[in-house]
Design a protein that fits this description.
Strand content: 5-15%
Largest sheet: 2 strands, antiparallel
InterPro entries: HTH_MarR-typ, MarR/SlyA-like, WH-like_DNA-bd_sf, WH_DNA-bd_sf
Protein name: HTH marR-type domain-containing protein
Strand order of the largest sheet: 1-2
CATH topology of the largest domain: Arc Repressor Mutant, subunit A
Distance between the termini: 31 Å
Shape: globular
Pfam families: MarR_2 (PF12802)
Structural class: mainly alpha
Number of strands: 2
CATH class of the largest domain: Mainly Alpha
Radius of gyration: 20 Å
CATH superfamily of the largest domain: Winged helix-like DNA-binding domain superfamily/Winged helix DNA-binding domain
Helix content: 55-70%
Amino acid sequence: MRTLELYSELSPYDRYAWAHEKQEGGADRMTHDVDEKQLIASIVLLERFVRDIYPARHSSEIQPLQWSILRYLDRMPDDRCELRWIAQFLGLTRAPVTRATATLEGRGYVTHRANGHDGRTKTIGLTPLGIKALSNDPILTAVKHIRKLPEAEQSQFMNTIRSIALISESASDDTA
């Protein structure tokens, strides 16, 4: 709880400023011995940024997991559009993915059809409504915000996120 209190005491400018302290050469970048409170505050900001891009929070709206599924279906070939592949990609068990796809199907965003090779397996596909919904994908709002950064900071952001994802993936492989 103390972390949230510390976070709330910082102004938006201070939150940004400490994350971009000048090193001796004057270059804007985080120091290597970053304070733990600053790291936590950065993650809290990132979490809030991501949460805030999903403005519709009513149960009748498309939820973040459902958006992830729609994005996945839009980008993957049909042979990878089965519950097991979606769940594996999202790092979830099949149960929440099954519930989310059932909800999406009920709302007309996706269809389930029998797989031609295995009648027990269902292939999930986007409907025209699902494709249309992706034009309002909240992730596009995040992209617009990130595009407002200078090009060097955009590249730094993308590289940092990739590095964190690789470290996280490596750590989960080590514990598995």
